[in-house]
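Notebook, student rotation project (T.W.).
Task set for the rotation: take a protein with a known small-molecule partner, predict the structure of the complex, and write up what can be learned from the model alone. Partner molecule chosen: S-adenosylmethionine. Sequence and SMILES entered below by T.W., checked by me.
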Amino acid sequence: MTRSNLKNMHPRNVLRTPPNYTKLPIKHKDFRRVCTLNLNGTVSVDFRNEHTLRELAKMMLLEYFDLKVEFAPGSWMPTLALRLNYVLWLEDLLEPLKLDTVRGIDIGCGSSCVYSLLAAKKNKWHMLALDLKEINIEYAQKNVERNELQSLIEVHQQPDKTTIFKSYFESPNATKDKFHFCICNPPIFDSNSPNLTRRPASRTVRTGSAEELTCEGGEVEFVQRIIEESMLYKERVTIFTTMLGVKSNLPKILDYLKAKNISNARTTEFHQGRTNRYNVAWSFHKEAIGDTAPNQKFCC
Ligand SMILES: C[S@@+](CC[C@H](N)C(=O)[O-])C[C@H]1O[C@@H](n2cnc3c(N)ncnc32)[C@H](O)[C@@H]1O
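Predicted structure of the complex:
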């Protein structure tokens, strides 16, 4: 990350001050094991090594949020700067609502359950964490228990990959409480695309299993499903949000919202080093999003 990029990070992001990679290995012994000490006293981290990335992610969550996290083998690896920018943007969107208690839904929480853990630990938000994969549910549940956040986070297995909120809301055990937001980092690639095997080489190792990274129609169709279900459950969730990994998909989603006559929408961009993400929020409630939170761009 460059200095100018760091300056443009969300104003409340603690990672605006770059981590001290020379001091952190002294404090965190598992992280120390994957670092290389150079002759001039500096420390190198191999971002192409999956095990190293796991230890880095675990160390960052522990150092900055006192969160102890384990990841399922081969599962999707969260980076803290990006996850934090998304949570901070949500804080901005929710602020005008002046809520005493906040309830959110984490669509596709992954094995780390990272968004729910951050939201609960940092803000004491109540979270419903949903995922399809059994192993992700097991790890997510253990991560919640490891951090003693059971009173704030409920983990629920999504039985049907074609639905988003429906199977939970229609289940007899579902809470009758309303939710104030949903957060989502959708599977990005189209499982039917022949280009999947010809993805460009990345400078860092790509983590995540096929089931976590792909779905029918890729992120566009996944988000279109969220939009469709948002129309069914407009009274159950105040602000719907999602992330997109591909810039050219943003206008497609905005066009889809327009086609569904949903005009109350906002976008933001997150730039973390070489990783760019594009977020959309929409609401059926006039008091939400409407007068506040202009479209924003955050870089880190
Ligand atoms: C890209 S990963 C994101 C993981 C985590 N939220 C993060 O940002 O690090 C997408 C996740 O969505 C889950 N998923 C896919 N389809 C889903 C569905 N219909 N309902 C809930 N989760 C789903 C996958 O199993 C995977 O864990």
